[in-house]
Amino acid sequence: TILITIKVLLSFSEKDNYKFFNLDIVNVNKGFN
User: What angle do CA 12, 15, 19 make, to 5 degrees?
Assistant: First the structure.
């Protein structure tokens, strides 16, 4: 969860990496589901 939070902060500061963050969230959600 900490790593995900860090990615969130980085994603908000860098819009280019936001798409990559969205992919990570999708993968995490699939893992939990």
Answer: 100
Q: What is the pTM of this model?
A: 0.24
SS (H, E, C) 1-33: CHHHHHHHHHHHHCHHHHHHHHHHHHHHHHHHC
Distances (CA, A) of 23 to 2, 16: 17, 13
Give the model's pLDDT for residue 5.
72
How many C-beta atoms lie closer than 10 Å to residue 10's C-beta?
13
- Could you report the per-residue pLDDT of 8-28, keeping only the tens digit for each? 666 555 555 556 666 666 666
